[in-house]
Amino acid sequence: MRRSFIISLCFVLCLLYSAAAFATDYNSTGSTTEQRVQTRVGADFTKHWKCGVQLSIGEELRFDLMDNVVGTTSKSEAIDTAYGAAFNKSYTTLSLAYTPIEYVKLDAGYTLRILGRKDWSDPNEFIRHRVFFGVTGSYKTQYAKLYLRERFLLEMRTDSVNTDEKQAYAWLLRSRLGADFYVPGKPVKPYIWAELENTLNAPEFQQNNGQQFITNVRLQAGVKWRITKLSSLNFYYRFTYGYDRDINVNKSYYSGKKLKLRLDEQKEFQHAIGVQYSLDW
Hints:
- By secondary structure, the protein is mostly beta strands.
- It has helices at about 1-20, 125; strands at about 25, 30-50, 55-70, 80-85, 85-100, 105-115, 125-140, 145-155, 170-180, 190-200, 215-225, 230-255, 260-280.
């Protein structure tokens, strides 16, 4: 019995040693910080049916007013780059929603994304596809509507990608908690929401200490102004903190028995002011 215990203990210690000996080390890191100011304009059109179904199509254009990146890469290269005003992205979205009961809404849709800061000679570089589906639970009071939305997104890209560094088909989860406020007798509706976005299938090397990680934290405040019975304008301010882990497996190397990965941590602080026109009928 004692002999079996000693053999088992030695086996466990050997496993622990092997795990430590061949552990991944992220000491070879760099860090960049991006400060971005944007303006956004968009429009959406929604058809409602009495059965609780609604069909929407929308378009949003994003423009950078200021974009500055500073920091040091994993190659110890200093970065201090500023960009001027430029087209950033466009989002074209088609979605279908269904409200089976008053407090629950189900939705699904597709978004075509066009990226502005890419090589325009190859559609695989500047075109991205997104499919999403989610559920929203809400509760109404006399002066506000509180809601929680959980949305799954599948981000698809058709360019060449190293799956040890990035996913060609990346799953994300967005969790949004918000409140819409009613102003009796006024055609305005102030609102505020906060949202977390985290990875669900980031590859092993990109993970943070072996865990999936939060990629974006968003806060938005605004006011919806009903200008006619069917149309409204939404004025808003959005702050986004973004975080990403850029792994370069091809530039990694072994030091002893430890794999030292080339990791660049990328942080972004984004401020956006936007206006959205909505037509509902």
